[in-house]
Description:
- This protein is 35% helix and 13% strand.
- The N and C termini lie far apart (35 Å).
- Residues 1-6 have low confidence and may be disordered.
- It is built from four helices and four strands, in the order βαβαβαβα.
Amino acid sequence: MSDRPFSDKLPGSVLFACTHNSIRSVMAEVIMKSLYGHAVYVDSAGILAKDVDGFAVEVLDEIGLIGGNHIAKNFEDLEDDSFDIIISLSPEAHAKAQELTRTTAGETEFWNTVDPSLMEGNREMQLNAFRHVRDDLYEKIKARFRTAPSPKV
């Protein structure tokens, strides 16, 4: 993640992108929407969309967020491909984001995020990998999009 200066202005639109739009980008989209509501247009996409992973839904549910009704999509399925910021969570998605922003004013950022579905082990070990990614994304989003405190009058 790049170190961005403290900002008092949220971007108008953010796209989170990963390989399948089934875990990382879904979590990031749901978390960002929970933090900023309609103040920022937020979407997500993948290189090759797959159904949303059940563990991703479960760990979002643990913190009171709903990810189960998300419909995974490819970049080609996006209604708009012009975003202020595209945050890529996998190397493949970052290459696609850079390709998309060659002709637009949008920025790209790469937050290399481990794919928790690659974790082997029992159910609890796998869930812990998903929780770690969820919590990491939550902290990165809060840090990247923090806003200045209201001026004191």
